[in-house]
Amino acid sequence: MAVELFHKNETLQMRKKLIAQSCRLFFSHDPVKIVRARGQYLYDENGTQYLDCISNVQHVGHSHPSITQVAGAQMDLLNTNTRFLHDNIVQYADRLAATLPKKLSVFYFVNSGSEANDLALRLARQYTRHQDVIVLDHAYHGHLTSLIDISPYKFRKLEGQKEWVHVAPLPDTYHGIYREDHPEPGQAYADTVKSLIEEAHKKGRKISSFFAESLPSVGGQIIFPTGYCKRVAEYVHEAGGVYVADEIQTGFGRVGSHFWAFQLEGEDFCPDIVTMGKPMGNGHPIACVVTTEEIAGAFTANGVEYFNTFGGNPVSCAIGLAVLDVIEKEDLRGNAVRVGGHLKQLLLQLQEKHLLIGDVRGVGLFIGMELVKDRESREPATEEAAHLVRRLKEDRIVMSTDGPWDSVIKFKPPMCFSKEDANRVVTCIDQILTELEDVQKEDCGKIPGRPALKRL
Ligand SMILES: Cc1ncc(COP(=O)(O)O)c(C=O)c1O
């Protein structure tokens, strides 16, 4: 198959003309044209290889032959919809159920994380008969109108907060109101949710749900303090609401030790609804909502059919099953523990050398390295983080930033990422931060041969 139809510059011009400008490119100052990929490596039109540190969708590795083979074979045989009986959907639901607590046993298959979260919202509202939603500050839950409304990361830049949305502080013990020196940050942050519920009740409002990523990724690769989810779930249940865990970035073994990130909270914590997406189909659009029989029963009782044209079709489910097989066969959770642990250790060592690294946090292959201008004030080093990402690209490494100030270097590579990849990326970061610190020391404003940093 031809990997390129147009010369790169022509592709760029056509894209500028034909594709909405709000759909942004990575590295917009100098976009990369990727024409093929394998495992954790991307290749541009000249065959140059890039190490991919950001594609958490291509979970088991780009173009994995076990996935493409299954997809092709099922497409060749049949693709219909969920109104016909088919074994793939039930087998897939059964396999997913085996990874989840028993309470979560009823599945809805959809096409994207946004569809999953929108359906979760409908389920919560139908079950509780309440309208209001509590969300975490800086959260992102999807691009549909309903989800922009519950995504402070987006609505703060748009019309603002709806009266039925209540924003709880992000339980971030590095930047937040309670920090690592607090004796019980989990309880303290959970109490902020309790206060929000009380305030909402005073206004006569009723809580349908608490929505949170199990590890807030857009919020900056945050790890919840112990006990937070459990206490929040208690408060939300007392208010008649349900706990929705958004596992769209964090599910399918990314944290290594567990299949789902919410399981890090312990066996006695179980959300009422879990949404999953990105890694499910290794790039094929498939997503899902799982919930309890009671919640699903209340949704069924409204008498309105739930039909989703593409959701749960035989091809999607065959691909989903193949992804589960590869996670097991290649021990990708074990790899996340080993390589993620190694990477985190290397970054912690780097933190001792470079004052710019304020914090290193994460679990498995979900790691954040936060850059700060000053370790005391923890002022985010946004420009330095952007510079690091630009420079890593010159070293053929694709990386991104996240967090409220885009100061967190975010590692979420395909799960086949190796120790050698980790060594390579950390060596490059070390060099770049050394260059940056030299520039800062000399205060000369630019690195010879490199684009000057705006404020350095
Ligand atoms: C945490 C989280 N939830 C939901 C979504 C929406 O998923 P999708 O883009 O598949 O609609 C995203 C996408 O970035 C996400 O990161």
UniProtKB/TrEMBL annotation:
It comes from the Eukaryota. SUPFAM superfamilies: PLP-dependent transferases. The keyword Cell division does not apply. The keyword DNA damage does not apply. Pfam families: Aminotran_3. Keywords: Lyase, Pyridoxal phosphate. CDD domains: OAT_like (cd00610). GO terms for molecular function: lyase activity; pyridoxal phosphate binding; transaminase activity. Its cofactor is pyridoxal 5'-phosphate. PANTHER family: 5-PHOSPHOHYDROXY-L-LYSINE PHOSPHO-LYASE, PTHR45688. Belongs to the class-III pyridoxal-phosphate-dependent aminotransferase family. This is 5-phosphohydroxy-L-lysine phospho-lyase isoform X1. The gene is phykpl.
